[in-house]
Amino acid sequence: MSEQEVTMILANNPNIVPVPVIASFNNKGEVIPLYFSVEGLRLRIDHLLYSNKKTLDVTSYRCEVTFSDRVQQITLNYHKNVGIWTLNKIS
Fold first, then answer.
1. Alpha helices, DSSP H only, in 21-91?
2. Global pTM?
3. What's the first-to-final CA gap in the chain, in angstroms?
4. Which sequence spans correspond to the domains of the chain?
5. What are the helix (H) ranges across the chain?
6. Running DSSP on this structure, what letter comes out for residue 15?
7. From CA 48, how far away is CA 68, in angstroms rounded?
8. Segment 5-64, tens digit of pLDDT
9. Which of 2, 73, 77, 8 is nearest to 43 (CA)?
10. By the 8 A CB rule, do 44 and 72 touch?
11. Strand 58-67 relative to strand 31-38: parallel, antiparallel, unpaired?
12. For residues 9 and 80, is the Cβ–Cβ distance under 8 A?
């Protein structure tokens, strides 16, 4: 992953932020996100609702997380070509 590639992805997509993710793999080799961190908070993914391959290099994961006793849906994106995860900004 080059810093230039990551910078270009983030500059071209102002509605995403990079986030660290802990993920696992199922017996088919598919990526399953388990936890992510944002703004100093570590959040557990309660449910993976679905995943969708947006492009050859990007897979989106629609997930449910619980924060402050509220269930919220979020979208994580795995950018395979550069090895980073991003979170769609929540409005």
1. none
2. 0.86
3. 29
4. 3-88
5. 3-12
6. T
7. 19
8. 778 877 778 889 999 999 999 999 999 999 999 989 999 999 999 999 988 889 999 999
9. 73
10. no
11. unpaired
12. no
